[in-house]
Records
---
Amino acid sequence: MYVASTNTTRVNELRHQLFCARRGEIKSSQLPPCEDCLFMHVLRANYQAAIWRRCLQCQPYVPSPKGCGWTTDDDGKLAIEWMQGSAAPDAVLQLLSCKYRRSCKLPDCTCLANSLKCTDMCKL
């Protein structure tokens, strides 16, 4: 689906191959979603298709979106559930660093922009 010239059938393996092919000089937005994020997206798309399938019914049954890629936040508002697991293993998260040299503030600090804590590897 993402690269026609590969024999890889697993999304996470493809992400790794693309990352290695660019020697790590690639933004995460240029990679396909991980398996967990893709699964959550498929759940949301399936839920939306089920709603559209019922659109001509007078009183359609609309199931709760919870568990279908959505959750509720502290205020009770509907929020997208992007992934179920961790963004990366803890060992990998400890190796990430930002390159902002002054102080870690949004939007310049890539750690904070990605909802991560700055680590000892940051160049502060």
---
Amino acid sequence: MSLVAGFVPIWLLTAVGYAACRGGLLGEAVASVLGRFVFHLAMPAALFLALSRMPLSGLAGRPLLAFGASTTAVVGFGWVSAGRLFGREPGERPVWGMAAGYVNSANLGIPIATQILGDVSFLAQVVLLQVLVVTPIILVALDRHSDPAGRVRVRRIASLPVRNPVILASLLGVACSAADLHLPSAAGATLTLLSGAAVPAALVALGASLYHAPPSRAERAERAEPTERAEPTEPTERAERAEPAELAVITALKLVAQPAIAYAAGLALHLPAPQLLAVVVCAGLPTAQNTFIFAQEYGVGGAVANRAVVVTTTLSLATLATTATLLG
């Protein structure tokens, strides 16, 4: 199967999700329900199986170094430029940097890796790098800026691996690999079946999330009625005016700069063609939905984070196919 042909099922399943949501076939909550199923059950099963079967010698190699270099460069540039170019407050800058360089290694990464790369081995390493290194840095910065006294909630950050099923499954997979443990055949078969649902469910959920139903007549009437609302503050108005420019820069960083840096780093490290393809494709994945979740949790940068996820996810279906074709 050619690389371009490998994207056809991705596009078709995404289109199926969009059409099913638009036609009301699966209900309004389909994207949320399928997303939770993938995140809490199917995706952890897939990552656990991949990591438990991967020798530890395959971790932290040159491909991961190349990907890490692209992530560091783009997240760092986005973090700094949010303040210098767009005047974002210190508490908002981590979200800006995350939107520019934190890839969707789960919901969209697993289908892409399975269909185009043939397995999720390298993607599992990307997940570990992001959740064990990048995420704590982002959370520490957000915690410090959200607390009036500048304190960091260490207990909350330390408990993240237990509260996040993707991180927990990844760590358990690494532990099983290190101890050379093998699951009973029934448990392995069950996880294999469950992990097989990750790709189609994630893509249908992605397509459903791209459809936004038009407002009802009652909602339009409510919006049209004048209500007593507080006047927006100057920073909010400025953020709304700056948002298109910010979104353009974030999209360029995420879908162009990050894979380009990963490609250059991969060439410098003399990666063979299959590893180079894996590194560049993973670096070209869109902004992770965790960006919006963190922005909501801390009440900063929510509008930019939300639109960055939607725009980069939509455009990445084309940019990833182009990248795979050029490298292929």
---
Amino acid sequence: MTDRHALIQPDRGQKAVPLHLVDKTTFPDWLKGLNGGQRAAIAAQKFEGGGFETAIVPDGDDWFAVGGVADAGALSGWCLAKLAEVLPGGTYRLAKGDAGKAMHGWLTAQYRFDRYRKDPKPNDPRILLTQDVKAIEPALAEAAAVMMVRDLVNTPAEDMGPAQLEAEARALAKAHHATVHVVSGDALERDYPMIHAVGRAASRHHAPRLIELEWGDARHPRVAIVGKGVCFDSGGLDLKPSSGMALMKKDMGGAAHALALTGLVMQAGLKVRLHLLVPAVENAVSGNAMRPGDILRTRQGMSVEVTNTDAEGRLVLGDALVRASEEEPELVIDFATLTGAARVALGPDLPAMFARSDATAEGLLRAGIERDDPCWRLPLHDGYREYLKSDVADILNSHANGFAGASVAGLFLDRFVGEGLDWAHFDTFAWRPVGKPGRPKGGEALGLRAAWGLLQARFG
């Protein structure tokens, strides 16, 4: 796609097409200020001021555009998204006020994933001018992070395996002078047995590993970000049906979120000691695949009975969360495409969020609303811990009764997070099944900007 830095520019009086924003309430009075020909042009385009409606209006030898929004007095992140999708390439400015957080939708609406197209469709840039110069770089950074998630999730598993996730981490480290440590092979089997068990059936090309990145001043508060990196999930020997496997390239969506959030933290120079952990595996099927009934060792020392090989994400996260906890961070945030139960409960748009601390949960909810990246808190209900009891091991990985699947998965992870640590868990979908303005069908960042807002508020 077009270099994002070209899409938002300081307003220095350049020639630009005006953009008018109206809502159902303000539209009638706004319309009165137009001449007859302009009103006829708007009527011909069936523009009535509704959300995401657009029209192009002649104005002598020039023209202007109008967009319908929910509330013209309080712009959301998506108010300019439809305009950015449908307007011709050129330079634009708002006729009244400034874009504010609506810059995000202007940027993300111009995202394209065309890596595999022989002849990518040209994308003439739509440039937005703003007088709020200080807001440009933060808006560009957040949009770039969202687009990074989209790119990683949209890339098929053959080209986005554990080695490629490692390469993404190394590229981030090189750009921001961080260090990367990767554990694989015999060392992985010895020190992170659950990660190894899940990934051992994959080919050598997609061999499992734990990727760690560290950055920042050791004197600053330590923050751990953990992302589930299951680059493809066949379900293992508890094989998924083909319909369930179709989107499993996105099962590394948690890792994509974690990598993108890490990039935001480092680019902003947040005063934290950052620790990124990505357990990267492919849950494949072969003669040495993990079996139902196997009992796994863990880095923590507990034993886990595998009752479902398709509940593998919580296994790899468990070992990674133990490693994160060993450094006693002030905050741990993990992202995972973990359960179908979360999608049944909340649908594709809302990531389920779990937190030990009410203050942390409230901070995430608030930041999500402020950034039009809402999440929804679900409970870590102590009464459901009994669902994880095993007859032969310390804990089992998947309960049989079907109740509260997202919460029980969260309680499984909770067993691997250090006692007393502030921990938040996002069960995100990382995918948009139906496109919306600024949010095309495909890989999507859901919960990323909420987490970023919390980190900024707490450590900025």
